[in-house]
Model the fold of this input.
Amino acid sequence: SGSSCRCAPRSGPTRSRPAVPEGRRVERKAVRSDPAVFGDVRAWIAGVARDAGQDRAWARRFALALHEAMTNVHRHSYAGRPDGRIDIRAEVRDDAIEVRVRDYGRPIGPEPYVPPDPERPSESGGYGIALIRASVDDVRHAAVRHGTEIVLVKRREPSGTPVAASGLDRRACP
Done:
């Protein structure tokens, strides 16, 4: 089971944590590289997006991108092992939501990608990267010491609630 930081409502008690700059909110979650927990992570990030005022369709697309990134980590960085660590950091800004997916396995990167041919389905995969790219505005891979960091960025819809007006106490987040 993973851990997460959820910001406290303004009316409720606050926890003593470092201040988060105005106009952004940060939440974190750590999970195993076990696909059995990925649904919980999808629900968590969809909740973050919904709390930020994004509609269900927006939240589902973003959650799908995160799920596919974690699946790639499970499959490629941890070679299918369910016991690897994945750290997830979601930053809600006034203009976008950015998620960083950090693993500690074999570094993976954006090798030259050839999308699969939908007319010739394959068991080898290749659909995850296409789904990620279609679901977010920016995706980046970075080799880091002992692993990989995947960064997903999706611009917020204009109707999204500004972070400052979201009813969340940014002081409650690390």
Q: What stands out?
A: The longest strand covers residues 24-32.
